[in-house]
Amino acid sequence: MLRTTQTKASFPSQAVLDVEKASYEYGLQVAKAIEEEWFKKDSGSNKYFVNKDNYHRLRLYARGEQSIQKYKDELSINGDLSYLNLDWRPVPIIPKFVDIVVNGISERAYEIKAYTQDPNGVEKRTKYVENVLADMRNKTFFQEMQRITNINMFNTDTPDDLPQNDEELSLHMQLDYKQSIEIAEEEAVNNLFALNKYDNIKKRIDYDITVIGIGCCKTSFNTAEGVKIEYVNPSNIVHSYSESPYFEDLWYVGEVKNVTITELKKQFPQLTLEDIKELEDSKSNKSSYANRENSPKKESVDVIYFEYKTWQNQVYKIKETATGAKKAIERTDEFLPPKNPQDRFNKVQRSIEVLYCGVKIVGKDKLLKWSLAENMTRPKSDVTKVTMSYNIVAPRMYRGKIESLVGRMVTFADMIQLTHLKLQQVLSKLVPDGVYLDADGIAEIDLGNGTNYNPQDALNMYFQTGSVIGRSMTQDGEFNHGKMPIQELNSSGGNAKIQSLITSYNYYMQMLRDVTGLNEARDGSKPDEYSLVGLQKIAAANSNTATRHILQSGLFLTLKTAEALSLRISDVLQYSNTRSSFIQSLGRFNIATLSEVRELHLHDFGIYLDLMPDEEEKQMLENNIQMAIQKDQINLEDAIDVREIKNLKLANQLLKLRRRKKFEQDRQMQMENIQAQTKSNTEAAQAAAEAEIQKQQGIAGSKVQINEAQLGFDIRKMETEAQVKKELMSYEFELNKRLKEMEMQVIRDKESSKEDRKDKRTKIQASQQSELIDQRKNDKPPKNFESAGFDNLGGFGLEQFEPR
User: Fold this and answer.
1) What b/e sequence results for 492-512 when a residue is b if at least 16 CB atoms lie within 10 Å of its CB, and e otherwise?
2) Which of 2, 479, 502, 755 could pair with 364 as two cysteines, CB 3.0-4.6 Å apart?
3) Which residues, listed in sequence order, are joined to residue 330 by a DSSP beta bridge?
4) What is the three-class DSSP state of 490?
5) In sequence order, what are the residues at sequence separation of 6 or more whose Cβ sits closer than 8 angstroms to the Cβ of residue 7?
6) Which helix (H) or strand (E) holds 61?
7) For range 603-616, the mean pLDDT
């Protein structure tokens, strides 16, 4: 029969034998202590429902569905709301901020990286590094030997891409080196994530961390379904006290589930009909926490599923055989070695952490399950440790109290809702401007057409023309105090209240942004048109920084889940009925890794996450790349390689490395160009010198030939000249001879002529002398002796001296 828990319970001592720890009574005492700690009533409430109600309240605020009773109590007078006709629906302010954070986190992608840390994997990595180092140090020698002997002495397949220094080697090991078994492990973990739809689970976890400040998920393994990842509602969690945001020091943890009696019977067939009848009649834990709105119905019960961490002694009896060998025999921790040393028995033991799984119905002295956990997750680097199936994180927890982003906004969201209701109240009381009509002021007014000036006529004239008729004096001649019978009534006193409420609304909205760090630049709701784009990006980046703890908490759970899956893969490959289907599902992605997958359980892996950079980080990296390209510090291929790296730190390191290599390549190319130019200039100078020599030789040869030709020409010329001179001399001799003969003839003729003329002159002179003598004697007049034919003396004519 099921019994109701009545007495106060405490945790049993762990300093007992393993047999006692495995007993039903020990497990029941542990379950009672957990129930006592979480369901014990203190001042009319208990820890479990306080957390559950608080998380429920925060979730309602995150949905914009919080209770409006507090607002009604604030505006009511003695509980009376009959004079208020308001729209009580909450203003959905908080959901906007929650969506900004959660959706922003969902956009941050990540990659799971695995590296082997078992001796075999470390040995391969070490050997590879040693081979690369050997190739780096002997690259020149190996290349020369390969050129001489045509034998490849390099240990690596790509000697042309060898790192140049230790920094490049470190970057090469992080970016390029990957063992096939590591690739297989990464694909196996990603495959399990895909099979369990972890992306949907992670969105719910990110939402929980944002709204209630805590997130949880669970990994499990069974031979029927393999590895499972389950979302756990933090409202249902029970755990030991912890001050760590990552709950690393838990020694018990579990969750409360509302299970139907039919499902409970399927899970635990040992339940008798009497037990089930009692559960139906008592409505399960009615005596423990009845009178609650969310208490279980008759068809279901609340059950605690928990894990309890303790230790177990592994004891071995060491027996020495007759041959001197030693044999180890497993024993319980009750085994005691014999006191007589001649028995050749010895005891060896060690303590390891173990998990006990328990299931208990809340409010009943009925323990449905208590046994040593199967398929416990143990790090292969330290098999004495054990990890629990639940991974929990609460980034803003202090002394067990959890703070959330929505919790910071609740106060100001309430004030915004009250301001909104007050604004409705003021608007409902606003009336339009009216007029005041003094009936006595128009009583004695005659329009002159035989009709009186009644109030209706006065109002019609006022509203249609804006004019009004009045009298300053009464008929008795007294001052008329109603000389202005119509006056406007200004009823706009509510405008100041409305403006004040709007200012308050904006104030509380700004307070929401201040306490959360979600400024206008984060969601782009109110960008400043005068603000620079860079300043807006800085503001958005600062807002991302304010909520980075939520992102990191979600990634922490992802990392812990990936580590748990990495360890559980060994269970799948060794024990699960789904081994074949698991291996085949991996083959859909990469057939080359199938052989490695079968050996995954032989290796130990370290898991880490590469977080994709956000838009701001991508932009910073892209700016660096563009600056390097513009300055011709990297090539386009280098920019493509840098962009493909998701880790921002490694991307910047690769960018710096490629810039340095590009600088060295440019300098080497410049030196080669200088050397090539120098060589070219030398060869050109040498060729020019040789050409000059050949030219001079050609010129000399030509000169010799020319001289020889000139000499032959001169000789021929001289010969010709000699011949011509000879002929000329001969001709000249003949000419001279003839001339001489002619001269001699002329001379002879001249002499002959002279003699003849002389004879004639002599004759003339004798005649003239005789005539002169005759003139003197006879005294005759002068006689002219000139005559034609005698004017030339010796060939010289005197006629030229005559006057002209």
Assistant:
1) eeeeebeeebeebbeebbebb
2) 2
3) 316
4) coil
5) none
6) helix 47-63
7) 69
Q: Please report how many Cα atoms fall inside a 13 Å half-sphere around the Cα of residue 524, on the Cβ side.
A: 2
Ranges 318-327, 630-639, 734-743: which has the least confidence: 318-327
How many angstroms separate the CA atoms of 609 and 605, rounded?
13
- The 3 state secondary structure assigned to 149-210 is HCCCCCCCCCHHHCCCCHHHHHHHHHHCCCCHHHHHHHHHHHHHHHHCCHHHHHHHHHHHHH
Q: Is the pTM of this model over 0.90?
A: no
Confidence bin at 539 (pLDDT 50/70/90): very low
Q: Which two tokens stand for residue 434?
A: 């009216």
Checking 617-626 for CB contacts under 8 A at 24+ apart, the result is: 617/648, 619/537, 621/648, 621/651, 621/652, 621/655, 624/652, 624/655, 625/655
- Going by C-alpha positions, the residue among 100, 604, 677, 128 that lies closest to residue 378 is 604
The answer to whether 353 touches 384, Cβ cutoff 8 Å, is yes
In this prediction, residues 37-63 reach a mean pLDDT of 85
Report in angstroms the alpha-carbon separations of 635 from 164, 286, 401, 655, 768.
18, 74, 54, 11, 134
Q: Taken in order 369, 375, 380, 384, is the CA torsion positive or negative?
A: positive
Residues 453-478 pLDDT 10s: 677 777 877 777 777 777 777 666 67
Contact of 280 with 243, CB cutoff 8 Å: no
Look up residue 55 and give its two tokens: 């998380």
Residues in contact with 667: Cβ distance below 8 Å, sequence separation at least 6, in sequence order? none
**Tens digit of pLDDT for each residue in 209-247?**
999 999 999 998 877 777 889 999 999 999 999 989 999
Q: For the CA atoms of 770, 772, 776, 778, what is the dihedral angle to 10 degrees? A: 60
Of the pLDDT bands very low, low, confident and very high (cuts 50, 70, 90), residue 285 is: very low
Q: Which residue do the tokens 């000036």 mark?
A: 453
CA distances in angstroms from 491 to 160, 433, 436, 487, listed in the order given: 89, 5, 12, 13
Structure letter (DSSP) for residue 702: H
CB atoms near residue 456 (< 10 Å): 9
Mean pLDDT, residues 527-540 taken together: 45
CA angle 81, 82, 88 (to 5 degrees): 50
Q: Are strands 390-393 and 215-222 parallel, antiparallel or unpaired?
A: antiparallel
Rounded-to-integer distance, Cα 125 and Cα 122, Å: 5
Look at residue 612 in the predicted model and tell me its pLDDT.
67
